Fold each of these.
Amino acid sequence: MRPFLCIAALVALVVLSLALGAASLSQDGGWLIWVSRLPRTAAALLAGAGLALAGVVVQQVVQNRLVEPSLTGTPEAAMLGLLAVTLIAPGMAVAGKMLVAAGSALAGMLGFLALADRVPRQDPMLLPIVGLVYGGILGATATWFAWSADLMQYLGTWRLGEFSGVVQGRYEWLWAVAALAALLYVVADRITILGLGETQARSLGLNYGRTRALGLIVVSMLTALVLVTVGVFPFVGLVAPNLISRWRGDNLRANLGVTALFGASLVLAADVLGRLIRYPYEIPAATVFAVFGAGVFLWLLHARPGRAHG
Amino acid sequence: MAGVLAVLSALFLLWGLRGPYGFILELRGGKLAALICVGAATGAATVLFQTVAMNRLLTPGIVGFDALFVLMQTLLVAALGGVGLAQVPDALRFVVETGVLMAAAMALFGVLLRRDAADVTRMILTGVILGVLLRGLSEMVQRMLDPAEFSVVQQAVVASFNRVDGGQMAVAGAFLALAMGLALRMAPALDVAGLGRATARGLGLNHDRVVMRALLLIAAMVSVSTALVGPITFLGLLAASVARQICDTHRHAVLIPASALIGAVILVAGQAVFERLLGMQSALAVVVEFFGGLVFLALVLRKVRT
């Protein structure tokens, strides 16, 4: 992978994304770009980067390459939290909602970890299945509550990640992703050691419990940020880290930036594609990505492993 | 089991009955027939699939059989247009759709079962992700349709027990009866097939042909239930697991009818409770999903310990 080519591709995508849209740029072009297209592009990039990073951390924590946040019930748990807020304190500020969503995402992930401890490590393919079903159960619970409180439409707004609703003033929270990414970069080495397993990590002098807690908090915050601003986006956290590690090996610190950029480009590409397929109408980016991501996942399952999985 | 189903059906039909009797009975009768059909088809199809896949955790719903059906429907509407499709008589359309689904299922799952027979978890995961992929694809194609045509697709694939027309019901019922009969005739062969490919071949069974036939029947049953009410992922798993618990046998001559009956009982009982006691209409699918998921996790974790 030549870095120059990657950057060039990303720039091309950004330009394309800025140039694409139902309205023409001849009148008020600058204003339109500033208020709608630039935020949309930035949101796609930030969301992609955040999801890719969240995927990296989750994979290290559970020591399994085939897991990512959306396969651990995290988004569903965050939805449950948001539903609870809507029912109990509908007037809460966005920051409060974010916190609640992140908190419930964390709770959901702890539940998943409790399950993961009982699934043997020898069989790395079992864990994503368990995670999917676990997410399904939480999702059914959320649907049930939404249904009995007449909030189905509210739930539907997050069901599918898409960027058509992003305008200036509606996505700024996503910039927190950048701050979290910087934090991850600082603790990258510790997260890597986390991936060796508890005994190894402890013997290397790592405060295992604290590092793991930090990683999980970061993941749940990333998940909550993306969920509240654009919606659920499956497979990004799985595809980006796995492909990058196949191409560049497993130096986490060196790869963090690349993985984030790659995830960002993937999501932006999905969004641009979704805008192009049926121009001027749009297909949600998450739908486009789900097809692509599931395809890549199948390939990962059946390709000869670059290195041992797990 | 049959007795329980009969009692439940009677309850469902007669609970809180007020005039006009004829009309209400007709309405409820149609709904009841649909519930029984769907429950039975799903239960039986799951037992067949689990035998063929040598795996107690898989169901046709989990590996995306129903997603395949939805995709077929969507592609048909996209190709022919909603109006063109509406001119085709229901029965013919149903047979064509099922035929297409059968062919696609044979191609897709035949390969899957043969490639991954040795590595069970990989097969499950592949099936699950395949389901996600198929759902994503149909979603994508649906987004490309006109709103009018989309509503035609939606009519055909959304889980609801409240609108089943008589013609479709009759075709589906006949179809299902036929599939069930064939499945029961295959029961002894399936008993042997359940021992695994090598053993079965050693005993002189043409294993691949049995698997293919079973897949055809599964495709037929899934298309019956999906066409009637839309996808319910975990119902089959519930029915088949309960059937295996109760019967404690490997004989398919017993398991298939038992699982079919239990599937029907779950649906009828659930719908009766929700409609009559709780006054809710479409929540049944969600609850089945919830408990089915729990059963699935319990099965996984128990399998791990043994």
Amino acid sequence: MASTADTDVMMAADGVPLKIKLRRAERMKKVWALVLVAPLFIFIMVGFVIPIISLLTLSVEDPEVSEALPRTAEAFSEWDGQGLPSPELMKIFAEELSEAERGEFGRVSKRLNYDISGFKSMLKRTARASDELALLPLDEIHQGFIDLDEDWNDPQYWATIKNASSYLSDYYMLWALDLKRDEEGSITSVDEGRAIYFEVLIRTVEISFAVTLLCFLLGLPIAYLLATLPARKSNLLLILVLLPFWTSLLVRTTSWLVLLQNEGLVNDAAIWIGLWNEPQELIRNRFGVYVAMVHILLPFMVLPMYSVMKTINPWHMRAAASLGAPGWKAFLKVYFPQCLPGVGAGTLLVFILSLGYYITPALVGGPNDQMISYWIVQNMNTLANWGLGAALSMVLLVLTMVMFFIYNRFVGIDRLKVN
Amino acid sequence: MALPSYATPLDKAWYISFRVICAAIFAFLIIPILVIIPLSFNSEPYFTYPMPGFSLRWYEEFFTSQQWLLGLKNSIVVGVFATLVASVLGTLAALGLNRAEYPGKSAILAVLISPIIVPIVITAAGMFYFYAKIGLTGSLAGLVFAHATIGVPFVVITVSATLAGFDNNLVRAAASLGASPVRTFQKVTMPLILPGIVSGGLFAFITSWDELVIAIFLATTEEHTLPRRMWSGIREMLSPTIMAVATLLILTSIALMVTMELLRRRTERLRGITN
């Protein structure tokens, strides 16, 4: 490397100013860094991000009517939705019903049946006669519909077609929150019998909260013990936390099934000791869900608390004691505040993980203990209602993201503190 | 945390009850795992103690059942290939993330680790929906692809953590001595970050090995992995063969845990020397 004496610009050996040379090297480094990251980035985008986004778009789409009956959808969206539609609209509808393919028609009738049960069979009957219906003159067409089914005189059926006719729609998102649009198009809550998803959402948060609280109460003593024992003993006890942590969730849930069933070990032992005389229902209910979930998530609470507690100087407690603080007071005022980063990380992590639980409640819970994930699977796999499944996924994802945002901020605050 | 000699009786009572509480919590953690292992050796198809006799019949049933063996084979194939894909891509990305500062880096990192943030049911449903469109469902390749995706954040995280303690002057020294970047990587970087790659890979493997929800969505009977097979079994009837499978899964977990622990101790020891 040479520098010329007559200017103050440093030159590299090949005569290019050092500054430029350095900048080039920096740029090359950045390019290389991006080249190394690119394969995984593309992999995650294609294999994960795009699939999830394409799934979530289903939650704001309502494609059946506008795809199968495009002219009807267009005409109905201009109609004000009051009373019965004009004979012209009815004619377009009848014409398109007679032209619709079987599969497409099936999807339309399934979709409309979500709103009014019984609509499906009524549509089927109408479609069968639609060839003749479409040929009727305008002044007879209304009567033609009524002759097929009295209900065509009821404006709510026509309004339902109108509400389902726009491709982009908040229909499934509202449904996921037990809401709907009424005939006037304003948002109201659905009938009591159909409202389940808001309750499921509340239940999901409630179970997650209870599990988090229980994990905290059980995790705190053992994290404290692990952090204050001599290293050799605590390493040994740590295995008792790490082994469950590494064991498959399904295996752990299965063992709770074995332990808690009517003829299971817990019932046997309790009867033998004399705690109760008859076998108690310990699974297929909330108790079973709590026990199994707390067992599975407890390590996620203990490990972050332990790693923070390990760094706390034990002399602080002794100093508090020497100043006259009783044990509990020293713990609350001196020790516990210093654990907060670990407590926060553990509680948030357990809460976030709980929100998405599916396998464990499905196996050890009853019908009233199923969380939102269960209904996502149910709607997609069993009921083939992808729109609602996607909308429920959206609700769960937003909830998780909000919690993660808090977690991230918290970790940031934590880092500031350490520095 | 031994009790000092000036402790009052109340202190002593608290000390003892604290220990008892802790023992109970540790028992709660470990008993469900320990209880299942002996049951898999029960000579009768019951789940009660005391057991009438010892028998290997459930293991025999496992190793002679076509369905279970297919599950075992699928689990191994998917686990191994998913781990390989995740380890290679994850290590490269971690190297790239650690190499330079550039705009959007934290956003890129967020995308790379997003598979462990998004609830698994959403991931599985999204993959099912999208893979069905591109014809990746109903094949082991789809499952490998999916499992690699959810395993790769662990590799990125562990390798990044190893790189954080990595002295870049070593790379500069190698370069100044005339080593090419590839040779530097082989001789200097790779041996130092290998523990990170291995532990990330182990995490990726156990993630795939225990994964169930994606398998529920993506796998047809031909691609059933062990957990997927177990899931069907549990929902039909809780048979002792399932206890035998569970025991095998627990043993795998123990083996992986011990490997991880040894790796961690080795790293700690090496760090101890360099300090």
